[in-house]
Amino acid sequence: MDQLKPRPANSTPLTPLGFLERAATVYGDCPSIVYNTTTYTWSQTHRRCLQLASSLVSHGIKRGHVVSVLAPNVPAMYELHFAVPMAGAILNTINIRLDARTISVLLVHSESKLIFVDILSLPLILEAICLLPPNYTEHPLLVIITDDEVPSTPSSVTVDFRETYEGMVEKGDPRFDWVRPASEWDPIVLNYTSGTTSSPKGVVHCHRGIFIAATNSVLDWSLPNQPVFLWTLPMFHGNGWTYTWAMAAVGGINICVRKFDAPVIYGLIQRHGATHICGAPVVLNMLTNSPNSEEKPLKNPVHFLTAGSPPPAVVLSKAESLGFVVSHGYGLTETAGVVVSCAWKPGWNRLPATERARLKGRQGVKTVGLTQVDVVDPKTGVSVKRDGSSLGEIVLAGGSVMLGYLKDPVGTSRSMREDGWFYTGDVGVIHTDGYLEIKDRSKDVIISGGENLSSVEVEAMLYTNPAVDEAAVVARPDEFWGETPCAFVSLKNGLSRKPTEKEIMEFCRDRLPHYMVPKTVVLKDELPKTSTGKIQKFVLREIAKAMGSSRASRL
């Protein structure tokens, strides 16, 4: 036994890029991508990715360079998940809902060398580039992604592009020997958690981690060969929870759609026989409330994986009556996808609907690809009691946990400690049956429509208003979005004219991405504080909770 050791033949770096090679061989003539009137096979997708990777290298992209993309769920966005790392580069997908100021900060922080930009996001990226610091000399090359569905160029834009996406594909070598990772620990993607402008949190994942996460995605959701996957989940959102690569592993059909629209989604489900969908609870809510849902139940069951805040019981019941089979999970950008899921026990099907919804609302147990999950006292690291009421911080350990935060060794060390755990910052309990349930968010993260937003950043913007004295932002329940930002604000004394709640919202709307803008503003003479002068957010959370759904108040 002592002479047995790792050798080149058994220690080839793990990478999800090999999934595409296999798909081209096994499913070569089968559809890989469907978008409007365009259909590619897996052999065509493999060839196009090789050609694009070849062109990237010819443009000077080297191992370790960051290549960004700003695009919705169009075929190019899917292909770039393979083509960019096949050139040895690191893929950085940018949230198209961010504002130009935030995007410019991310481009500087990532040192992006090249940006693929969708035609409709062209004005946004040009504005972001104009906001780059004067001393920033390495402006990235822009490559435009055109689309038959939209005008060739927005009328407000006059710019001469050296390259287009399809032009780069056509110029590339289909026999290109793609750049394999020197080590499975080589970075493959860079994802920003929330677009924080003061100190961006760039999550870096390696080839090994994404391989494990994608394989885990296939196993945990029990994906069959050649599922029909409808892309309602943005691919820029944690790389579509790694289902971009997972679909290649099982030869799935990727149904691409530019933006979410419930009637369109129902049409695509019927037309293509979609079998699997991912999305935030708000997506499920929109589907169940669409007039199309009243026409008739789905012809065949459609599996729907949701993560984030648990879907309300009424939404779950309605979805199941329509033919959706809902699964609930938990993951973070830092874990590359769902790592805890509510594994369903057959006996639970005999329970009343309200009890099934309660059980399905729990985050669940570790997936097969995760090594360990626990809830611990954050100070001592000791596990809390498994009684469903003892609170602690959720900690994780496994191969899909990130390498760390880009250019942030302090943040990396704070979350990935020497005790072997990744500290999520989420507060939860473990029930007597071993199932995990989130109870609070110690980082004050608000999940609105599937997007994580930092209350601290919204507060920082509120404080830039010269009339604001104090500000605190907490989550308010919302029947549609799950949660929305609720801002409690006290104004400075001696103002000749006090701004209204509406004016404060408009102030934020001009300076923040729209999903981060408070949907509720409450003006108070003074915010509640502790004896040491800290704002008591837990008091404000209770007030916001007692206010009920922000959506219901607008009806």
Automatic annotation (TrEMBL):
This is 4-coumarate--CoA ligase. It comes from the Eukaryota. Keywords: Ligase. Residues 20-406 form the AMP-dependent synthetase/ligase domain. One of its GO terms (molecular function) is ligase activity. InterPro entries: AMP-bd_C (IPR025110), AMP-bd_C_sf (IPR045851), AMP-binding_CS (IPR020845), AMP-dep_synth/lig_dom (IPR000873), ANL_N_sf (IPR042099). Belongs to the ATP-dependent AMP-binding enzyme family. Residues 457-534 form the AMP-binding enzyme C-terminal domain. Transmembrane segments: none annotated.
